[in-house]
Design a protein that fits this description.
The chain contains 9 helices and 8 strands. By secondary structure, the chain is α/β, with parallel strands linked by helices. One of its GO terms (molecular function) is hydrolase activity.
């Protein structure tokens, strides 16, 4: 068993003994940190609406190269601002590509409800991708998922199965169990079959995932220390990660949960290097 998992299990056990309700406010406050200073998106910014059972896109032109940005918990109202912020960060790194916001029902103070909604959003995004509204075969489509948006991206891959695939998936500060991408995990098959490459950008400075996610989910977060396939106190070895999955440690570049995709800070240069 890894030292990280031992420490996390010990901490979570202590929290569980004290009662989750007593610490939920602290975890929630961590998620808010640094998430209120996005750049303001222009009017009529391109957006995919995943709040409906029939997802639709607005202000989206035909593009051969496209990045779809998926926000996290409590990010619905700022979805286009977050996507535009990423687009500007790309531009600063000489990566000229349109970014479209994928907006889903994440604005609830009930974390577990938002987590459940992320599964629905992932299936809807997969449905939109498969509906011939975008050319997955000849075009270049990349997904970037922040926090719970990372779970949406992984649910999308799981829903696509072997029928279609995207080029790249970048998980940033992913609020997902750290063994869910391992061979025996729920997302391994989708990663292996529905994307050319999946990269997980994680930071041990991300308190929202390193501590908040532990408390909310009683499990270690993928966005903190990367994948951990060595098993826990009562579970066996989870195998290894798929060959097209890579952990990228950006602890030195990312100091906060919402800094990953911002200009001048975060890890956008690493994303650009991997995309190109």
């Amino acid at each position: 068993m890894s030292r990280r998992r031992v420490l996390r299990t010990t901490a979570v056990t202590a929290v569980a003994g004290a009662g989750v309700a007593g610490v939920t406010g602290t975890a929630s406050a961590g998620v808010f940190s640094g998430c209120d200073d996005w750049l303001e998106a222009p009017a009529e910014y391109p957006e995919i609406d995943l709040t409906s059972s029939n997802p639709t896109a607005s202000n989206l032109e035909d593009e051969d190269d496209l990045v779809i940005y998926v926000h996290g918990w409590l990010g619905l109202e700022t979805s286009t601002d977050q996507a535009y912020t990423l687009e500007e960060a790309f531009a600063e790194n000489d990566y000229d590509v349109p970014v479209v916001a994928a907006s889903w029902e994440a604005d609830t103070l009930n974390y577990w409800s938002a987590e459940s909604e992320s599964e629905t959003a992932g299936r809807r995004l997969a449905s939109w991708l498969e509906s011939d509204r975008i050319d997955l075969e000849d075009g270049t489509v990349r997904l970037v998922g922040h926090s719970l948006g990372g779970r949406v991206c992984l649910e999308t891959l799981a829903a696509l199965g072997e029928e279609a695939s995207v080029d790249d998936v970048a998980l940033v500060g992913a609020a997902v169990d750290d063994d869910s991408v391992c061979t025996d995990g729920e997302y391994a098959y989708g990663i292996a079959t529905s994307a050319d490459a999946v990269s997980n950008y994680h930071s041990e400075n991300d308190d929202s995932v390193c501590y908040g996610y532990d408390i909310q989910s009683l499990s270690s977060g993928l966005g903190c220390g990367g994948a951990d396939c060595e098993g826990g106190l009562v579970t066996g070895d989870s195998g290894s990660t798929p060959e097209n999955y890579t952990d990228v440690d950006v602890t030195d570049a990312v100091d906060d949960h919402c800094d990953y995709t911002k200009p001048d800070v975060g890890c956008v240069p690493e994303l650009v290097d991997d995309f190109e």
